[in-house]
Amino acid sequence: MDEIDVILNDARNSISSYCINTCKAKCCKKGQLFLFSKDELSAVTKNNTQKYIDSNNIKKNDYGNFYFDLETNGGCPNLNLKTSMCNIHKNINKPKICSDFPLFKAKKFIVSAGTCPAVQNKMFENHFKEVEKLGYKVI
Fold first, then answer.
1. Cα–Cα distance between 67 and 51 in angstroms, integer?
2. CA 137/CA 4 separation, integer angstroms
3. pTM value?
4. By 3-state DSSP, what share of the chain in percent is helix, strand and coil, each rounded to 5?
């Protein structure tokens, strides 16, 4: 694992209790969940993919990837609404976008999800300073 990945993982891990207790997993309830493989699709749909496609809850974009509209569907089907915890958090087929949220590495950039309350509350500032020292630009 590269040094940048260690920093980003540490940043994500630093907000886990905030996500569960304060934010209540807003990211799992709003926007769209992009799924880049059949394994991710199966994990999210609990192996009921066709049911979700037939009911128009999962759609395919122009690039052949699937996406799940979280708002229309009441959130991710794997989110426990009582505990704000993910039922597939430890599943190796959990969508990469879920693992990476809210900080995404793209070449020499770190893209932070502006919709994330932790980003809005500047909870990653120390981590951002570290990644900038490695030559990454945070956007």
1. 14
2. 12
3. 0.87
4. 40, 20, 40
